[in-house]
Amino acid sequence: xxxxxxxxxxxxxxxxxxxxxxxxxxxxxxxxxxxxxxxxxxxxxxxxxxxxxxxxxxxxxxxxxxxxxxxxxxxxxxxxxxxxxxxxxxxxxxxxxxxxxxxxxxxxxxxxxxxxxxxxxxxxxxxxxxxxxxxxxxxxxxxxxxxxxxxxxxxxxxxxxxxxxxxxxxxxxxxxxxxxxxxxxxxxxxxxxxxxxxx
Length: 199
What we know:
The chain has helices spanning 2-25, 29-39, 65-80, 82-85; strands at 44-45, 60-62, 97-98, 105-106, 109-115, 119-127, 133-142, 147-159, 162-177, 180-195. By secondary structure, it is of the alpha+beta class. The protein is elongated and about 65 Å long.
């Protein structure tokens, strides 16, 4: 009987130690947000999503902070990498943009892609032969699980023989790490100047 009580006491103490360890290793929302904010102080967290204008998206799940760290590092490195941060335009000999994948050339269509680690931020607009621009829009493409984008403003400016664009918006991230979720945003502004078609 003493042996059974001894084994029972040892088992309970091991379970108690094990639960203490689990409690110490649990991630809190505050720790998660601090970790993300340390990666980029410009990230903005939403304390009350009901009052914000953010569009909630399906979150991306990470098993641990290391996976989240790799995700954020990919995004941050792509922003600071000068080669990948350039405007990616593909023209044929007639100064027409190659419409990716379809094999068709569309005169006056500009598509600027910026690699953001796992997805592209795209800006598109049309410019006619008189250098008048229309239909300026920006959007995301690629692997966008847990990521959404809202355009806040856009402007095309004609300065013949060039046309300039400016777009601004918000990229929202919805993530879950070890069962703890958060939602944060990054404000982005992009601009550029390009030759008008036929120049």
